[in-house]
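Q: For a teaching handout, I want to show students what a protein-ligand complex looks like in token form. Below are the inputs, and the small molecule is oxa(dethia)-CoA. Please produce the holo structure.
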Amino acid sequence: MGKKAVVTGWGKCVPPVALTNADLERLCETDNDWIVERTGIHSRRISHVEGTDLAELAGRRALASAGLEPEDLDLILVATCTPEILCPSVAAMIQERLGAVNAAAFDLNAACSGFVYSTANVTGMIESGFAERVLVIGVEKLHIAMDYRDRSTCILFGDGAGATVYEATDADAGVLSVDIGADGSKGHTMVVQAMGTKGDPYWGKPPEETRLYFEGQAVFKIAVQGIAASAARALERAGLTAEDVDLVIPHQANARIIDAAARRLDIESERVFMNIQDLGNTAAASIPMAISDAADAGRLKPGDVVLLTAFGGGITWGSIVMKWGDRVESVGVHEGELPATDATVWDLLESNLEFYAPLHEDQPPVRR
Ligand code: UT7
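A: Here is the structure, written as tokens, with oxa(dethia)-CoA included.
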């Protein structure tokens, strides 16, 4: 039997400043009850540092969790649709910061499906013998693309980073099957035209082009059908059924999407991991952050069958079926923290609100 790709380390980096539903009530015509009922989200994070800083810390934590040194890595793969700049890639910047001198590095953009797509890539590289130890990081600084006076989008998204170490193993563990796919003809349902989050990202760009646009209901339907169909294909490829799954770790898009997809798969909520309430939808970062939370909460046992499943802009989707390895506790802990900040959420959103103000001259002013 050939090598498989198994998770041996995990970590996350959650920026400290929260944007609560009560804050959003001051920004647009919405209310806490509506948001909680329709999405399951109570709060999301707004980062005071660049996404690369979040990614670096999540990556260091995952390496410590796996008990590896940066020099041990063959590859660093970063899933993101909000890179700080386009070139060098976030992955290359992380390679330099970690001193991972033996690692190749590249970014991958499959929007919210980015972590699943990355895992699919890593699985192929490990199974073919091209790589043995890989750090995959999902990171987003999505608040840059949020128009906080547009209630149809701004309630969902947040910033954060999660990281997972995959290693080659001969043991009876690791990725069992992969399903990834895309339908570019539906790409218009979720669009950000201009990007690059560094510095003042709004300079020189019209607000219509920097804010996230999506057709919520259309995406909702595509998501529920897409996730359930992709997960079913991945399970079939692994020779398993929904009954065999111990834990689903889905992309944290919306609690109702997750519930509806799980119902279609006939998987009850006890076997579905959710941490959307405090983090919101963090796109490519959501699954690795959820893996980290699930592992730290003792939800993953040796040999557990784990199903990762996601959909996102593109439109893209993907699912992974894996058998969890023997490691259920971290080998070590990285003690580093993000630089402290005194900034309030209003400080962090100031340039954003100013930039999008011309689109909302008909709305009452923001009540900070
Ligand atoms: O990771 C992939 C990224 N994309 C997504 O995850 C998006 C998927 N879509 C969704 O999560 C949901 O479609 C939303 C949460 C965006 C919206 O939920 P919905 O249940 O589809 O609401 P809706 O768009 O059907 O709107 C229902 C009503 C409308 O009012 P009327 O026309 O019935 O009077 C909206 O105007 O709710 C209104 N509404 C709101 N009310 C209070 C829409 N947004 C809000 C809001 N607060 N924030």
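A: Two things your students might notice: The pocket of oxa(dethia)-CoA is lined by residues 30, 34, 38-39, 112, 151-152, 155-156, 214, 216-217, 219-220, 223, 253-254, 281, 312 (CB under 6 Å). The longest helix spans residues 216-237.
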